[in-house]
């Protein structure tokens, strides 16, 4: 009969078990044999923690003192990997993963590893931009991270999970590490994804627990109305010529007819993107005014006016977005971002 493995025996991470290491850290049921001097050099918190003499009867593993830390393995492994392997978590624009980012950011903040914290904040900020124009570019460029032909400032260095549960974990993390500038976009994505039960019940993602505060839950509920109102306003705009054009347009009746046909042919977008006013009518959609049906096409005067009015609706929504969630305005959030990561993405 095969012996069953003893689940109480701590598991060792081979990549972080150095035979000449002089200290063993344990997170949960996982152990790492690493170097005291490297921990102390990178982290003042570890330096202070390890400066206390070990008790004579302290726990020892393979001749090394054992220090237990109150962090989950899912965060500790990527954090320590980044400290002991320079290639594990390279700076932007090199690609990384969501879970590497989460662990490195949370524990570099907790243990005050400032350079790693800044690197992780830049990776995080690469997806959640504070300028509408940059947001639109990132949205288009990150549908496939395998295409790196665009300038590095135009894409995110990590792929979001299709599971919105991770967004809730990131909201929690952003508040913990004072990265408030990413929150408007995070909340925006939560509302776009639909207010599923996880918003109210908490989540587990890759071993990471997350939940929203009661106030954040209320805010995302209220924000849903603003999202849908902006989307409806855009569709109304597309089928309603501006007052100033009624005399300037050389064929206002034909242009109005064209607009109504375009909107009618794209009604599916209203259903599909009702919660997503920044996607419901994207730049590529303007080609619809030149592709459907026989002439006459919409005139250049009307098209320019429509584009201007839709852009104004999107910009108004973007400007109001932080306030929907009780956050400071964009200019203040940008100042916070600049103080944390410099001029990246500004």
The major β-sheet equals: 5 strands, mixed
User: Radius of gyration from the CA trace?
Assistant: 26 Å
Q: What spatial form do the alpha-carbon principal axes imply?
A: elongated
β-sheet strand percentage: 5-15%
Uncertain regions spanning at least 5 consecutive residues: 143-153
First-last Cα distance: 64 Å
From the helix content, strand content and strand pairing, which structural class follows? alpha/beta
| Portion of residues within helices | 40-55%
Compressed to H and E, one letter per element, the order equals EEEHHEEHHHHHHHEEHHHHHHH
Mean pLDDT: 87
The main sheet orders its strands as: 1-3-2-5-4
The DSSP helix count reads 16
Number of strands: 7
In short:
By secondary structure, the chain is α/β, with parallel strands linked by helices. It has 16 helices and seven strands. The protein has a domain of 100 residues.
Could you characterize the architecture of this molecule?
The structure is a single chain. With 346 residues, the protein is α/β, with parallel strands linked by helices. It has a domain at 225-324. The chain has 16 helices and 7 strands. The chain has helices spanning 36-42, 44-51, 73-84, 98-110, 114-127, 132-141, 165-176, 183-192, 198-201, 214-238, 245-248, 252-265, 267-272, 288-291, 300-324, 330-341, and strands at residues 11-17, 23-27, 30-34, 60-61, 64-69, 203-205, 208-210. The protein has a 5-stranded mixed β-sheet with strand order 1-3-2-5-4. A two-stranded antiparallel sheet has the order 6-7. β6 and β7 form a beta hairpin. The longest helix has 25 residues, at 214-238. The protein starts with 10 loop residues before the first strand and ends in a 5-residue tail after the last helix. This is BTB domain-containing protein. InterPro entries: SKP1/BTB/POZ_sf.
């Amino acid at each position: 009969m095969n012996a069953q493995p003893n689940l109480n025996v701590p598991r060792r991470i081979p990549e972080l078990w150095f035979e000449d290491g002089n200290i063993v850290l344990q997170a949960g049921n996982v152990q790492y044999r690493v170097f005291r001097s490297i921990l102390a050099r990178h982290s003042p918190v570890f330096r202070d923690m390890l400066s206390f003499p070990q008790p004579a009867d302290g726990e020892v593993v393979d001749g090394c003192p054992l220090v237990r830390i109150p962090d989950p393995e899912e965060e500790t492994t990527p954090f320590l990997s980044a400290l002991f392997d320079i290639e594990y978590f390279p700076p932007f624009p090199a690609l990384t993963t969501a879970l590497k980012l989460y662990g490195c950011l949370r524990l570099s903040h907790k243990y005050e590893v400032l350079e790693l914290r800044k690197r992780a904040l830049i990776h995080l900020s690469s997806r959640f931009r504070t300028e509408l124009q940059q947001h639109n570019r990132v949205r288009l460029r990150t549908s496939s991270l395998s295409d790196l032909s665009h300038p590095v400032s135009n894409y995110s260095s990590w792929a979001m999970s299709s599971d919105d549960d991770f967004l809730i974990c990131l909201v929690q993390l952003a508040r913990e590490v004072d990265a408030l500038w990413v929150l408007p976009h995070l909340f925006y994505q939560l509302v776009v994804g639909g207010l599923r039960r996880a918003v109210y019940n908490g989540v587990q993602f890759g071993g990471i627990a997350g939940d929203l505060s009661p106030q954040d839950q209320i805010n995302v509920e209220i924000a849903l109305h603003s999202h849908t109102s902006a989307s409806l306003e855009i569709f109304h705009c597309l089928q309603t010529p501006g007052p100033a054009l009624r005399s300037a347009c050389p064929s206002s009746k034909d242009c109005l007819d064209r607009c109504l046909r375009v909107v009618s042919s794209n009604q599916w977008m209203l259903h599909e993107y009702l919660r997503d006013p920044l996607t419901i009518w994207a730049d590529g959609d303007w080609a619809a005014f030149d592709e459907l049906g026989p002439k006459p096409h919409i005139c250049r005067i009307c098209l320019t006016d429509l584009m201007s009015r839709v852009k104004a609706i999107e910009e108004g929504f973007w400007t109001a977005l932080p306030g929907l969630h009780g956050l400071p305005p964009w200019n203040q959030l940008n100042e916070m971002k600049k103080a944390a990561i410099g001029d990246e993405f500004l």
